[in-house]
Amino acid sequence: MRLTTEETARAARFFAEGIHRLASRPVRLMEVCGTHTVSIFRAGIRQLLPPTVELVSGPGCPVCVTPNEYLDTAIAYSRCSDIIITTFGDMLKVPGSDSSLMAEKAKGADIRIVYSPLESLTIARENPNKKIVFLAVGFETTAPTAAATVLQAEQQGITNFFVLSAHKLVPPALKAILAEPKTKVDGFLLPGHTVTISGLEPYYFVTQEHAIPAVVTGFEALDILQGVYLLLEQISTGKAELVNQYRRVVKPEGNPAARRILDKVYQPDNAVWRGFGVIAGSGLALTAVYQRFDAKAALPLGKVESREPAGCRCGEVLRGLIMPADCPHFGLSCTPEQPVGACMVSVEGACAAWYKYGQGRWSYA
Amino acid sequence: MRLTTEETARAARFFAEGIHRLASRPVRLMEVCGTHTVSIFRAGIRQLLPPTVELVSGPGCPVCVTPNEYLDTAIAYSRCSDIIITTFGDMLKVPGSDSSLMAEKAKGADIRIVYSPLESLTIARENPNKKIVFLAVGFETTAPTAAATVLQAEQQGITNFFVLSAHKLVPPALKAILAEPKTKVDGFLLPGHTVTISGLEPYYFVTQEHAIPAVVTGFEALDILQGVYLLLEQISTGKAELVNQYRRVVKPEGNPAARRILDKVYQPDNAVWRGFGVIAGSGLALTAVYQRFDAKAALPLGKVESREPAGCRCGEVLRGLIMPADCPHFGLSCTPEQPVGACMVSVEGACAAWYKYGQGRWSYA
Amino acid sequence: MCLAVPAKIIERTEFMATVDIGGVTRQVSMMLLPEAAVGDYVLIHAGFAIQAIDEEEAQQTLALFKELEQYAADN
Amino acid sequence: MCLAVPAKIIERTEFMATVDIGGVTRQVSMMLLPEAAVGDYVLIHAGFAIQAIDEEEAQQTLALFKELEQYAADN
Amino acid sequence: MPPGINMGKDGGVMHNREERILLGHGSGGRLSHDLIKNIMLPAFANSALAELHDGARLAIGGTQLAFTTDSYVVKPRFFPGGDIGKLAVCGTVNDLAMCGARPLYLSAGFILEEGLPVAELKHIVASMRETALAAGVDIVTGDTKVVEKGAVDGIYINTAGIGIMLPRVDITAKRVKPGQDIIVSGPLGDHAVAVMSERHGLTLPERVISDCAPLNKLIEAMLAEVPQIAMLRDPTRGGLATTLNEIAADAGVGMILEESLMPVRPEVLAVCEILGFDPLYLANEGKVIAIVEKEYSEKVLTIMKQHEFSAAARIIGTVTNQAAGQVALRTTVGGLRLLDMLSGEQLPRIC
Amino acid sequence: MPPGINMGKDGGVMHNREERILLGHGSGGRLSHDLIKNIMLPAFANSALAELHDGARLAIGGTQLAFTTDSYVVKPRFFPGGDIGKLAVCGTVNDLAMCGARPLYLSAGFILEEGLPVAELKHIVASMRETALAAGVDIVTGDTKVVEKGAVDGIYINTAGIGIMLPRVDITAKRVKPGQDIIVSGPLGDHAVAVMSERHGLTLPERVISDCAPLNKLIEAMLAEVPQIAMLRDPTRGGLATTLNEIAADAGVGMILEESLMPVRPEVLAVCEILGFDPLYLANEGKVIAIVEKEYSEKVLTIMKQHEFSAAARIIGTVTNQAAGQVALRTTVGGLRLLDMLSGEQLPRIC
Ligand code: SF4
Ligand code: SF4
Ligand SMILES: [Mg+2]
Ligand SMILES: [Mg+2]
Ligand SMILES: [Mg+2]
Ligand SMILES: [Mg+2]
Ligand SMILES: [Mg+2]
Ligand SMILES: [Mg+2]
Ligand SMILES: [Mg+2]
Ligand SMILES: [Mg+2]
Ligand SMILES: [Mg+2]
Ligand SMILES: [Mg+2]
């Protein structure tokens, strides 16, 4: 069973009308996840909402929150002639302090785009004289795939595979946002795919401690419209509950098998988020048993000098404090072809999405 | 001072007329050196000679006399991913038992053409993780350059440079030719450039033991014409002397400095010549002190299976027993593009020269 | 944050499965979802199956959207 | 067998020399011909000077050829 | 200016301080355009080139000609539905057709890597022959270079083509006006997906193959019946969205497309969802975009639907007088989104 | 048949059992010819291609055109006297001129390696611009592809060119007849030597540079005065000897050249002696061979000597009715030698 185009359009109209009806006072809703940000733009959802409903992007773009120090380290590794970098395509264009992986690749670095971390192991076997450094970025959804890859490497006796971990956990970042006095969020669209792994439990603090409604939401246009609708329903009735819109995928308990593998390989660690600084317990480090797969420990580098781009307001964008168009660089000195900050490069970056999908340029008829 | 074109032409005419005058009975003269063979064809000298004077090529093409076993070994090394072959361009197209260096290069082998053996050392320094195998072919002229290169490698502490030696000495091959009852040679044009190193002494056996006149000859057209003239002069007067036509370069004592370096690095050894089999004392092997530069000792290979091409009569051509056109393959199933034997590929190969310069094809007007 | 696509398992070994994603097939690792069987729908991320898709819930969501659509059409 | 070309030494260090070959210059090794000096003509093979060229002999050969030429012209 | 960031104006690219060519410069998107605008156009300044059409329109000795070139570097060189040889003929034939010309003659320049199996070359040349026969063009001049192992990746082919302009037609962006219909000849993205799937471990069903095809006979049939067609373009590198952006910018018009009308095969959509691509930016090699006054669009569609390469032709949007130079997409749920030019290449991503 | 030897008839090459492309297939010599004869001609069979001229001669809508293409892969890409950009314009302009055409329009197809400095591209493009201006041609259409680092060696350029046939001329091998003079426009081998010397550690004096030059104005001047010229050809890859072999074979005539008249600079001769090359097989990029009835040769030479690119033009031999298809050289000492086609490439050798 699938919806026809007409059915989709009419269901959308139902939610849009409901949202208009419920949105009597201005509200600010944060879509935590970058995939939501992109879906919202690609479906043109903003044009269906009343001016009272503002959608603001959160920190859920793993590439955007990865600080320059990590990128500079990856770039430093890529410059070693005996190292092959494997990475998701997402990382290629992101600027570090004074280069990017794409620029290094153009200069001759061996950098391979993988769709799955497992491909790194094939590359490791085919290149026994090289060291393979996998750029392990991503949230709860992605970290277990990297962990499983480490377990596979162990089992297959692969000794030339290493992980440069920048994995991050979403709940500590949400806590940081909510701890910030300037934050103004009336409801959260929670990231359906991280919750798929973590389960609902880690997110109850939003509704219970902060009394802010939250809806775990899928990624189709109708999922998002329903998510907004469900948030407004709660707001208009003064409720603050954790609702699961994405029940076909998200189980209350998440995926315990994936979490067991994650916990075997990784342990929580403090981590630096771009724009936030250190957030306690928000990162993942390899456990002692798997230390030998840790690139930083196994392949020590000299000191990497890093600095964040001056004038870039990614940090505030990621924390939901300003909208991309509020940055004076936006669309002028900062474009996808000549980005100042990571948020203008990552497909899921809020600045990139606002720019690409025409916010501030397209005059909607 | 240089000769004008006219002066050259008239001097040539003088020698040609002299040769015609002296060549009252049929004579067979052997140009030992492949460079002479090529010069004779390129200058069109045959057309200046009376039919009574036959020039026959000797074994002085280092590529031609190198047996397949050597080529197959070089090819086997070229197939090792950690080996770079350095070679004079001469070797590239020569067929081994079932491949050639050129075919291996096309398949991806790292084979570099050098003009001087010394370039191998630069390549060795630039590729510390690779082993450089230099294909050391050539006669007395070339062997000292390889020996000097070994000394340089030693002095510079280069440990990834190796020599696969197929150097050969001319006098033992001449002895083998003269020992063959079927041989019919009335005079020798001796190779000016090997004698440049060895000096005259090793060649006196030709005139003294075999009573055959011999002229050490240069490589210009007039040098060769004069060489032929000087041989005919001797033949017509019944003399058998070792005459030095190439006095501007060849000193009676040769180049003792070069021989000292040669003797430091190499010692005489038995060697296999294509068409001859083993000729005692006709090769050069690294001395014990420089054994570590010997590719065969330092980089052992599994057994290399070799066979000579069936039906090829290179052996007889190289020994002066038949002319290339006497081979049934010549120009039919054996051409430079589809050679059967090495003599059809090497620029100095007798078959190649006969083919390229039109013997048997061009009807001289 | 995490692109993921629904897929149907059409073949399975201990660690791997062949899945069908809208007519396209791919090998994925089943390490993170050991229980899933041939015929099940699963969610794929970075070459791994990361969760089973609840068919009943999926149908209910679709049915709900259809119903709403009806509702909108009626009003 | 062995291509070799005449060249003139235009610069020299202990082991190397710059030589001029018909207007073209190249670095060659002097290891096999340690004595040769700037201005000398030498024979080059495979990047090494292998022998000094005897200018007088060279002139004599040329003179002989010229003479013969004269002889042929006269006859 | 933040340290380490190149803010240079001429073709400057991200963190590319030494200004090196990036893959994105060949993607057909904005970097490609910057390269052409900043380096090629000023150097080769002439009116034919400045048109930036699929080919140049020239008058020689009273004859109106079209002239075009493309190099083909596709990898893998054999893919479902074709190979680099077929592509090399189709691409140039199509560019000529898009100028409103009848393609007549092609040149073929081969760059071969030492070690390429001769059998592969034969196969590729046979494809070129077949495709040229099908398109009714002759390959009349050629060149073959061989470079050392490693100096080229197997085989690259350049073709250039000459065509004679069809009578009574004037295909140019300047004739694109508000109110005209935008027609596309069939499903989008087939070629890109056929070429890249294997590389990413994705297996397509056998029916999903590159759309690579010579469109000249189709185009000639369309123009014979409807010489009024304003604009034709094949949405190759950069895809539909980039091509329409180029036309919108050249014509100074806006465009609105309907997502619900956008023809994309489910398998192509699936590949896009897996890798995080947008099908509207994927390359096609046998599709045409036609822009035509509304009064002629039914006639054009009728002709197109009779032709094997455009049986699924449909109207996907209209030219507007709003937001000149921009292209928008009305989404299935009733929203509106900007369809920008491709920026850099699309890379497979997980988020 | 001996084991391990490929005796196959179609393009078979030495010990190349899997039949792979060798460098020699691109050398312009016999292997190149076999490749064209055995693979390209049968596939693309048509009368224009079968002429095997420097370009195809075509009639389109009553206009007589010439059409040609070449890819340029020269390494190093900057060399004394030029660069790959200058070469890419000269080569195609010259091929058109050799057909007896006035070159008018060029296409330019760039294949760039990811990582190529943009500054180099700009330099190359500026050379193309300058050379096109000097030759009086327009670059009217182009294409730029970027491939991954390592998939091409820096930059390769293809140009194709269109020219209009000059009136009253018919440049074709079939008009080459015994008794005609063979003229060459100047010293041989300069380009090859300029390009390869550095690679072999040889330093040339500054005056010895590539001869790379557009010859179209020279050719047009020659044809304006002497439209009777029978044949023109630029002796590029494979050199003078190979080019004359091609003409002799096509025309079914013999040729005799005089070694004493052969123009070769002493430096070029020196490089040849060092590396074991023959200057008659070295590539030229700004030379023309003209074949003309004896009664016109003085007139042709007079025109040529007035032109900067052919001040040293001279007669080097004559066409004969002996040994059809073969070319001979009368040597300085009075001998005669066959000048065969190039077989494989010339490799530096020590013996
Ligand atoms: S627009 Fe650019 S500079 Fe401004 S916050 Fe976004 S990425 Fe940073
Ligand atoms: S012609 Fe060929 S087969 Fe005969 S001897 Fe010469 S190389 Fe051998
Ligand atoms: Mg096009
Ligand atoms: Mg084109
Ligand atoms: Mg095109
Ligand atoms: Mg060509
Ligand atoms: Mg390669
Ligand atoms: Mg030509
Ligand atoms: Mg050409
Ligand atoms: Mg040419
Ligand atoms: Mg193009
Ligand atoms: Mg490269």
Automatic annotation (TrEMBL), chains A, B:
UniProt KW keywords: Iron, Metal-binding
UniProt GO BP: protein maturation
Phylogenetic placement of the source organism: Bacteria, Bacillati, Bacillota, Negativicutes, Selenomonadales
Biological source species: Sporomusa malonica
Superkingdom of source: Bacteria
A Pfam family matched in the record: HypD
UniProt-recorded Gene Ontology molecular function terms: 4 iron, 4 sulfur cluster binding; carbon monoxide binding; iron ion binding
Protein name per UniProt: Hydrogenase maturation protein HypD
Family affiliation: Belongs to the HypD family.
Keyword Iron (UniProt): yes
Automatic annotation (TrEMBL), chains C, D:
Highest taxon listed in the record's lineage: Bacteria
InterPro entries: Hydgase_assmbl_chp_CS (IPR019812), Hydrogenase_HupF/HypC (IPR001109)
One Pfam family this sequence matches: HupF_HypC
BP terms from Gene Ontology: protein maturation
Recorded GO MF terms: carbon dioxide binding; iron ion binding
Ranges that cross the membrane: none
NCBIfam families listed in its UniProt record: hypC_hupF
Family: Belongs to the HupF/HypC family.
Name of the protein described by the UniProt record: Hydrogenase maturation protein HypC
From TrEMBL, chains E, F:
Residue ranges occupied by any PurM-like N-terminal domain in the UniProt entry: 54-165
GO annotation terms (biological process): protein maturation
Pfam families: AIRS, AIRS_C
Domain PurM-like C-terminal: 177-327
Coiled-coil annotated spans: none
Membership in a protein family: Belongs to the HypE family.
PANTHER family xrefs: CARBAMOYL DEHYDRATASE HYPE, HYDROGENASE ISOENZYMES FORMATION PROTEIN HYPE
NCBIfam families documented for this protein: hypE
Protein name in the entry: Hydrogenase maturation protein, carbamoyl dehydratase HypE
UniProt organism field: Sporomusa malonica
